[in-house]
Amino acid sequence: MKKITSLLLLLCFVCLWTEAQEKKNESVQAVAFNKEAFDLLNLNYPGLEKVKDACNNGNMEDATRFLLEYYRVRKGVVNPAVDLKNISVSKTDQQWADDALAHTFFAHKGYLPAYNYGKDIDWQYWPVKDNELRWQLHRHKWFTPMGKVYRITKDEKYAKEWIYQYLDWIKKNPLKQISPDTYEIYDLEGVTGIAENVRFAWRPLETSHRLQDQINQFTLFVESPSFTPSFLTEFLVNYRRHADHILHNYSKEGNHLLFEAQRMLYAGAFFPEFKEAATWRKSGIDILNREIKKQIYDDGGQYELDLGYHVGCIEIFNKALLMADANGFRNEFPESYVSTIKKMIDFSMNLRFPDYSSPCFSDARQGSRQAEINNFKKWSKQFPDDESLRYFATQGMEGKLPQYLSKGFATTGFFAFRNGWKEDATVMILKAGPQGEWHCQPDNGTFELWFNGKNLFPDSGSYVYGGDDEVQKQRDWFRQTAVHNTLTLDNKNLETTQSVTRLWNPKGDVPVLVTENPGYKGLKHRRSVFFVDNSYFVIVDEAIGEAEGTVNLHYQLAEGEVKIDKNRSRVITDYPGESNVLLQCFSPKGTEMIEEEGWYSLFYRERAKRPAIAFNIDKKSGTPVRYVTVIYPQKKVDASKRISARIKKAMEDKLEVEVKIDGKKRTLKYQL
Questions:
Q1: 183 noted as active-site residue
Q2: pLDDT value for 5
Q3: Which DSSP string corresponds to 125-138?
Q4: What is the side-by-side order of every strand in the sheet holding 487-489?
Q5: Parallel, antiparallel, or unpaired: how do β-strands 606-609 and 599-603 relate?
Q6: Mean pLDDT for the chain?
Q7: DSSP element (H, E) containing 415
Q8: Which of 449, 451, 630 is nearest to 541 (CA)?
Q9: What number of CA atoms fall less than 13 Å from residue 236's CA on the CB side?
Q10: First-to-last CA distance in the chain?
Q11: Alpha-carbon torsion 330, 335, 336, 338, what sign?
């Protein structure tokens, strides 16, 4: 009896699934051709002669058929992102494609397992009020994997489902005119009704993402029997709608604007048959040529001061060049454009740890080692004469290491103290630059420190971007100045982030950096860093000015066991392996050492608890507060190590510090 019941249930399921598939097939086949497509095309474009004749004779069915035939055999236009002779499908591609058949859509890696959006797709479903989750749903990240799986298997279910979802999205997400400023509003209560959906579905960044990826989907699916002439006309009308929307609603600045410009270039290059194609392409190129001068400082750093987005911007500028190279308009980019990309790559290369990772300052996140190596492979192909890029691209099998160690970028305020390039090196990367854009956090003076294979002071990261009150509260916690390795007044966020490099000398036995930030009204923070014997660090923090309040010096360590000795203002780590550190702070009488709440986030919506400490002292008007911190990395910390430090002389233009390690005295000084 149980077997019969199970069989009946199975038959019912199969019937229902078959009925649903038939309805989808019917909806795909029922699409009538969209005459508007022919009004958008330049029918005098070479190869469209038969299409033009059919249109002139009023035979639109033949015109749509001839148009699809043209695109299936079209020559002379190259999509460098898809090599049809070398399609590969990863496990992730396969999962995204298969999940999408059941309307379980991968929208954001911070939300796994992915959410199901219903048999009748609800494109406004918002299970967690995180703006990024809803924005990124409209990037349709699973569409291209569906195309790759289809191309390998020739299984029409992927093509039919893609077309169904594509048309369903158009129907349920009409484009309405709203104020361009609305697209970047993070206040969930600020926009309601139709405008709420438009600002998620049609934000120019997401629109540009689709504009780019639909080129790949077109390439992968166009030969499918399900890709009918009628569907082609709907595709072209929708594609033009996307391009026109971006053209009139570009983001004002930053990486969003760069993404949109690069993708408009793609649109104009890949679909030259559109009457407006040349306008799209020129628009994108003009913006990229303009913004590479505006957004990239003379030292190669991008003005958002986020090392993750910096690499993203390299990719944007490079993609534009690849499309130009593939389709014959490289001359529309000046040589200075290429040389600036090279500066950006050098900037990125120097601000990395030996495992290819970069600090998670601001909104940066930890990328995978292989992804970063792949970047170096691309960069090395672009600049084949650069021996250092070849070294990192081949993981040391070819090429040569840079002939220097420590390196500074004074305009953007990034500095790397380094005694080597390999896994056992000691590397401190410090951030102290000008006012950054949206992704930049109020963290001037902060640093990360790598020693012998481990990051001992990882940055707090960002955790999430923004959404409702709960999500915004989470973001605000990770952004606050007090959870970075820097100085605050009354634990408040910096009022000003405009650090100035007073001194940078990367040479000799004691490389030194002096940087200043007027962080608060009436209070200047000067941080001096000495890399003593290219082995350990002495950091002098000075809070100077008329401001009164509690001065806080914060340090955030990696997760794991630590021993805190408040009587000696000392922290000793007890991490597994051979990468540990002793930190001891020397400060004025009355300083209180306290333990603080500590977290850090390397990936979106992933966080780990870690030890955090602060040294607090009350500051009276006009009286400077000065700390000396010794950070001594060791494989295994020697708790008996005797350390002392004191400031011998501190003036506006000079500093002299005496440090003793096990009785051995060193005098560290500089003159500005």
A1: no
A2: 43
A3: --SS-BHHHHHHHT
A4: 487-489, 549-556, 612-619, 592-596
A5: antiparallel
A6: 93
A7: strand 414-418
A8: 630
A9: 30
A10: 92
A11: positive
Tens-digit pLDDT profile for residues 210-255: 999 999 999 999 999 999 999 999 999 999 999 999 999 999 999 9
115-135 residues labelled b (16+ CB within 10 A) or e (exposed)? bebeeebebeebebebbbbbb
CA distance 584 to 132: 41
Mean pLDDT of 324-346: 96
List pLDDT tens digits, range 475-521: 999 999 999 999 999 999 999 999 999 999 999 999 999 999 999 99
Plot region of 582 (φ>0 → left; ψ -120 to 50 → alpha; else → beta) = beta
Determine the Cα–Cα distance for residues 454 and 268; give it in Å rounded to an integer: 46
Cross-sheet strand order for the sheet of 654-661: 643-650, 654-661, 664-671
**616, two tokens:** 């607090």
Which pLDDT value is given to residue 436? 85
Closest CA to 529 of 520, 538, 521, 518: 538
- Residues 72-95: tens digit of each pLDDT: 999 999 999 999 999 999 999 999
What is residue 219's three-state secondary structure? helix
Residue in 309, 356, 391, 463 annotated catalytic: 309
Q: Which long-range contacts (CB under 8 A, 24 or more apart) does 492-496 make?
A: 492/520, 493/442, 494/442, 494/443, 494/444, 494/519, 494/520, 495/519, 495/520, 495/521, 496/435, 496/520
pLDDT digits (tens, 9 = 90+) for 145-157: 999 999 999 999 9
d(CA 399, CA 419): 20
Range from 61-65, 344-348, 492-496, 636-640 carrying the lowest mean pLDDT = 636-640
Measured distance CA(46)–CA(42) in Å, rounded: 9
Sign of the dihedral defined by the CA atoms of residues 508, 580, 657, 619, in that order? positive
pTM to 2 decimals?
0.90
Q: Are 157 and 179 in contact (CB under 8 A)?
A: no
Question: Please, what is the angle between helix 143-153 and helix 156-172, to 10°?
Answer: 160
Give the pLDDT confidence score for residue 11 in this predicted structure: 43
How far is the C-alpha of 447 from the C-alpha of 415, rounded, in Å?
9
Ramachandran angles phi, psi of 401, nearest 5°: -70, 155
pLDDT at 3: 44
CB 263 within 8 A of CB 284: yes
Structure tokens at 285: 């190129």
